[in-house]
Amino acid sequence: MEGSICSCPNSQTWTSAPFAHAKSGHVRQSECSNLKFELHHQKRLISLHVECCSSHTRFQSLQKNKMQWKSAFVASSPSAFATGSLLSSKSVAATATEDGVATKHIEHPLSPIEQASIEGISQLPTDANGESSLSITVVGASGDLAKKKIFPALFALFYEGCLPKHFTIFGYARSKMTDEELRKMISGTLTCRIDQRENCEDKIDNFLKKCFYHAGQYNSEADFKQLDAKLKTHEGGRVANRLFYLSIPPNIFIDVARCASSSASSEQGWTRVIVEKPFGRDSASSAELTKGLKQFLAEEQIYRIDHYLGKELVENLSVLRFSNLVFEPLWSRQYIRNVQFLFSEDFGTEGRGGYFDGYGIIRDIMQNHLLQMLAIFAMEPPVSLDAEDIRNEKVKVLRSMRTLNLEDVVIGQYKSHVRGGVRYPGYTDDKTVPPNSITPTFAAAALFIDNARWDGVPFLMKAGKALNNRRTEIRVQFRHVPGNLYKRSFGTDLDQATNELVIRVQPDEAIYLKINNKIPGLGMRLDRSNLNLLYADRYSREIPDAYERLLLDAIEGERRLFIRSDELDAAWAIFTPLLQELETRRVSPELYPYGSRGPVGAHYLAAKYNVRWGDLNVESQV
């Protein structure tokens, strides 16, 4: 970029790449207020040089993000210049180029969209006093997600000291409610860490004092202007950064985005919007939703959240693979026979059938949670840990996947079942579900990635409600040992000799590797054992909830665990033809008893590719 935000005749030159990609920084400040800031951007050395005419220039050091240094650039009259530095004088000049070529001339304050397009913030924009404020608005504050997940996650961040000094939380919904009623509603869901119980009640009281409520319509700009006035009162004239969490149905996303953008966005700091799934029902509706949001928000302002990406074991996937030499050489078709992504719940819809019936298990679980885990598992090593580098590799995987067809899918629906004298209701027994519904509550699918690393390896997904247990796992089954000297010891069932890596996402987070070994004694008897890392035994600290990590990342401007629009398009392209065929042909799901392992057809699907589901004999000791 190139431009000037003052008329100082002794201004110097600033050279930089887009700040969202800055990796590290070094700073030097001389007595003559001459600042030099160097960034290592991938393989290029980029420098920033700013000279101020005033003696009031001062510098604030960069704050370190989780994995990388970042910087921010915000320009507003008369001077709000921040790249890890803070220049309080009005007489500052800055000229910027990228690789020696001017990319933009700045003569006026940047618009919110321009600010968002170049922000990569690990430090909140601040005012001349070095202070900023953070305002978080939970839209749909009266809903279950807000009460059970979002407010508790925000409190956990407050308890851990992860929120800035000046922060405010507003609940926004159509329901009439006072501030005290909101606080009473959410207070019952707030808990302190198991290992940090001291001053818990005081912490809760202090947090609740920061929570307020504003009632309004989701499509009313006037109501959002009233919200804006309340936010400004609490922000106290500081540079305001605003985060909106849309915990609402997708059919009103665009109305809220329009009202928030036009009437309640920040005038100086950043404005970001977290969007909850589902992101449409198919490719067309998803594209329409994205187009509608982008009328009022830049892509860089939109944070599409999939809470499974914030789970500890999912985030550990890339660490396990790329930081352990023992695994990365094995991560290919040469050594891996199949990969399974398993999701099961031991309960039904339980009154939520009305919502679920509009989407089904494929849209609700497979197309987002399981597919996102698959993309992280199968991606090529990224250039760096930068958000865009990681998301680029995920998109490549998704675009390499075959479109799903009906022959590679089995669907099911749970029916009522009596067990132990207790009758468990079927899916259509739910009063919120139409009695003739054919919406699947179970699905199994075989997917394939047509690239050099994974050609021919089946990636099997299985997801269902009202099954025999609650579990989410990734199971990696390795190939048989060629010419195994001990094959006679295993009999005809060579699957018993297969090494298997299991990553249990929830519950009881664990990573374990199945190996073969000799049973002590004079004979030659072999046994399967587990080398396991059980998180509860190894780590004493409580594992943070996924929403805590994702909310903190959104506040810091870290986009690595959020879904980009082209990533969303590629994901829907895999499933949309299948969903359309299921609905057009009105394919009836196979019924399975409540509390069972699911429909028999899933086993035939696995056998079709010479695979046995890894969860059939789940180890009780692990």
From TrEMBL:
Enzyme Commission code(s) on record: 1.1.1.49
GO terms (BP aspect): glucose metabolic process; pentose-phosphate shunt, oxidative branch
Swiss-Prot/TrEMBL keywords: Carbohydrate metabolism, Glucose metabolism, NADP, Oxidoreductase
Domain Glucose-6-phosphate dehydrogenase C-terminal: 319-613
Pfam families: G6PD_C, G6PD_N
GO molecular function: glucose-6-phosphate dehydrogenase activity; NADP binding
Function according to Swiss-Prot or TrEMBL: Catalyzes the rate-limiting step of the oxidative pentose-phosphate pathway, which represents a route for the dissimilation of carbohydrates besides glycolysis.
Similarity remark: Belongs to the glucose-6-phosphate dehydrogenase family.
Protein name from the UniProt record: Glucose-6-phosphate 1-dehydrogenase
Upper classification of the organism: Eukaryota, Viridiplantae, Streptophyta, Embryophyta, Tracheophyta
